[in-house]
Amino acid sequence: MLSADPAHAHCQALEQAVAAFREQHTAQVTAWGERLAEALRAGGRLLAAGNGGSAAQAQHLTAELVGRYQGERRPYSAIALHADTSAVTAIGNDYGFADLYARQVTAHGRRGDVLMLLSTSGRSENLVNAALAGRRAGLEVWALTGPAPNPLAAAVDAALCVVADSAATVQEVHLVTVHLLCEAFDAAQGPAEGLLSAVEAP
Questions:
Q1: CB–CB of 178/57 below 8 Å?
Q2: Looking at residue 188, what DSSP letter applies?
Q3: What is the b/e burial string over 89-101, where b = at least 16 CB atoms within 10 angstroms of the residue's CB?
Q4: Which CDD domains match (predicted)?
Q5: Residue 161, strand partner residues
Q6: pTM for the predicted model, two decimal places
């Protein structure tokens, strides 16, 4: 069990990071949610990727879009690129870890899609390569990272860089960002999207 002091320090660091996030980034997250809703309603899709815990965050985001966040709405196309284990292991084996996501972005990405890349350090080579591949293919490329400057933030169209001293705190604020992005996405749904119940589904 953690002693009181480390637990207090962890919570205090998180409180400070969330307070800074609230002051600096909530408008950006809302704008991203609205833009993502526009792109997916137009037939685009979200591609998302990360490594380790950030891969789990990326898959959390895509699950909320294909499934639902809170209210009922129709499903939208969103793919976590690490989740196809056969493709991941084949690409890693044949081309190397650095090209793990770039090759998938080139294969699946289309102009009008959005690519979201998550990295606590912002220094993952495979994500930087994915960002460059996405921009070459005409995708809109966003990143959630730790403190700037970092190579991933420099490689994307727009980045949200969390100011925190530890990767754990950055990752916790990334989860808040994912949830707020989903809230903004759902709020941007127009009446044409409506509700899609199980009995209405084809």
A1: yes
A2: T
A3: eebeeeeeeebbb
A4: SIS_GmhA
A5: 145
A6: 0.91
